[in-house]
């Protein structure tokens, strides 16, 4: 007898699935905007408050600590309460935290509010990836994940374009007000239009699960289920990090965490410090902000193309190829000159570094079953955010030491190489 998963895998994509995809993309656009607004505001905050790069790096790291804890601990609750409810909570935490950041009067208030915002940002990313992957046919799961995560650099890019015009004229606080309001106004959209994961309803079976599941199936053009299957032992067990190390998952979990840690370490050095480092090369404030924008513009194409390519050659080969190309570009950066050529190179580095990382999310979506999928992806992101916490502080130290952009790039090629090694050693055919 065909299962619900069989029906979805063997049927055409419906408007319900497209709707889930669009809303998840929008949520990640807000994620990218809320993360990058501090980077775009960084040079102005430094000038206004008289703080150095290393001190600002601590604020960056506090935000990333919040993202790590949100991804690991808060997002795992989505395996208990559902993906939709978690996304609604994340909107409130993200939007409220970012809006209040506009009122920060000192470094510690700024750091605390960025930490709170980070909790929602970290959990949002894991929940949208999980929800989208569960509504995707297996043949297009990598592509769905890539498209959803492309929302992140889209939001970062659009906010960068706005920041380049707004911050020099109206100041950095205006950017935080705009980002916070933009996040909070999406709350009704999530409440009234976002549907719960059919897979979660089927496996976890909360109250009224059958009625809710059949309503979703009817919207997708499928027949009602007469009843729910017997719950698995894993579904009855409260999910937690320990579940990621049972049933033969331990080896893959460790290696995925290493790959995420290394990939995030390089990516967040780049996303956090490119505007400042570009400014130090002599670019104007506007062009320095655009450097970060171009980086994220490249990432948009990298995310989607990676999702497409990995469906053809496999996730493992696609991730390694993207990271190798990124490493070559970072090594070659010291030999590149000219404002526009530098900006183009930033875009290509964003294409490769973000595209490779997005493949790791798709690996997580395939490694873990529905009952613990949000937990698995969340903890992998949390491991990655740990690398991201460290790298901005290292970046600030390098900037203060007077290291050039090219020399800094050389140092952060090493984590990409280690990520390639880790992903090559994961033993599962799911990513080949």
Keywords:
mainly alpha, 432 residues, Growth Hormone, Chain: A, globular
Walk me through what this model shows.
With about 425 residues, this protein is mainly alpha-helical. The protein has helices at about 5-10, 15-50, 55-75, 80, 85-100, 105-135, 140-170, 170-185, 185-195, 200-205, 210-220, 235, 250-280, 285-315, 315-330, 340-365, 375-400, 405-410, 415-425. The chain has a single domain, classed as Growth Hormone, Chain: A, CATH 1.20.1250. Helix content is about 80%, strand content about 0%. Helix 3 runs parallel beside helix 6 (about 105-135).
Write the layout of secondary structure elements.
Blueprint: H1 4-9, H2 15-49, H3 53-74, H4 78-81, H5 83-101, H6 107-135, H7 141-170, H8 172-184, H9 187-193, H10 198-204, H11 209-219, H12 233-236, H13 250-280, H14 285-313, H15 315-332, H16 339-367, H17 373-400, H18 405-411, H19 413-424
SSE ordering? HHHHHHHHHHHHHHHHHHH
User: What's the β-strand tally?
Assistant: 0
Low-confidence stretches: none
What is the CATH third-level topology name? Answer: Growth Hormone, Chain: A
Tell me about the biggest sheet? none
Q: Would you tell me the structural class of the helices and strands?
A: mainly alpha
Relative strand content: under 5%
**Mind telling me the CATH class?**
Mainly Alpha
Quote the average pLDDT.
89
Distance between the termini: 28 Å
Q: Tell me the Rg in angstroms.
A: 21 Å
Question: At CATH's second level, what is the architecture?
Answer: Up-down Bundle
């Amino acid at each position: 007898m065909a299962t619900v998963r069989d029906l979805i895998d063997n049927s055409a994509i419906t408007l319900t699935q497209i709707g889930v995809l669009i809303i998840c993309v929008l949520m990640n656009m807000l994620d990218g905007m809320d993360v990058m607004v501090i980077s775009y505001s960084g040079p102005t905050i430094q000038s206004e408050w008289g703080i150095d790069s290393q001190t600002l790096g601590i604020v960056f790291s506090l935000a990333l600590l919040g993202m790590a804890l949100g991804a690991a601990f808060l997002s795992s609750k989505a395996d208990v309460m559902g993906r939709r409810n978690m996304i609604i909570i994340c909107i409130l935490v993200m939007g409220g935290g970012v809006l209040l950041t506009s009122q920060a009067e000192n470094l510690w208030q700024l750091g605390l509010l960025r930490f709170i915002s980070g909790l929602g940002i970290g959990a949002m990313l894991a929940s949208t990836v999980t929800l989208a992957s569960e509504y995707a046919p297996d043949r297009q799961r990598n592509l769905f994940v890539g498209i959803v995560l492309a929302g992140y650099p889209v939001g970062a890019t659009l906010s960068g374009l706005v920041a380049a015009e707004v911050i020099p004229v109206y100041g950095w606080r205006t950017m935080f007000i705009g980002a916070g309001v933009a996040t909070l106004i999406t709350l009704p959209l999530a409440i009234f239009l976002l549907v719960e994961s059919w897979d979660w309803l089927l496996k976890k079976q909360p109250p009224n699960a059958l009625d809710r599941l059949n309503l979703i199936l009817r919207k997708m053009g499928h027949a009602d289920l007469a009843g729910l299957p017997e719950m698995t032992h894993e579904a009855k067990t409260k999910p937690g990090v320990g579940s990621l190390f049972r049933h033969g998952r331990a080896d893959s979990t460790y290696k995925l965490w290493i790959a995420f840690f290394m990939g995030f370490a390089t990516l967040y050095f780049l996303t956090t410090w490119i505007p400042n480092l570009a400014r130090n090369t002599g670019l104007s404030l506007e062009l320095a902000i655009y450097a970060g924008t171009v980086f994220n513009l490249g990432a948009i194409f990298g995310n989607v193309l990676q999702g497409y390519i990995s469906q053809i050659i496999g996730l493992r080969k696609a991730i390694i190829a993207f990271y190798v190309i990124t490493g070559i570009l970072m090594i070659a950066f010291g030999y590149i000159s000219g404002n526009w050529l530098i900006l183009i190179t930033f875009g290509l580095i964003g294409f490769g570094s973000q595209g490779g990382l997005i493949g790791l999310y798709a690996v997580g979506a395939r490694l873990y079953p529905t009952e613990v999928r949000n937990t698995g992806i969340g903890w992998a992101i949390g491991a990655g955010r740990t690398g991201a916490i460290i790298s901005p502080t290292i970046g600030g130290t390098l900037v203060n030491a007077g290291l050039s952009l090219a020399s800094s790039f050389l140092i952060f090629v090493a984590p990409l190489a280690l990520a390639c090694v880790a992903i090559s050693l994961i033993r599962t055919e799911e990513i080949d």
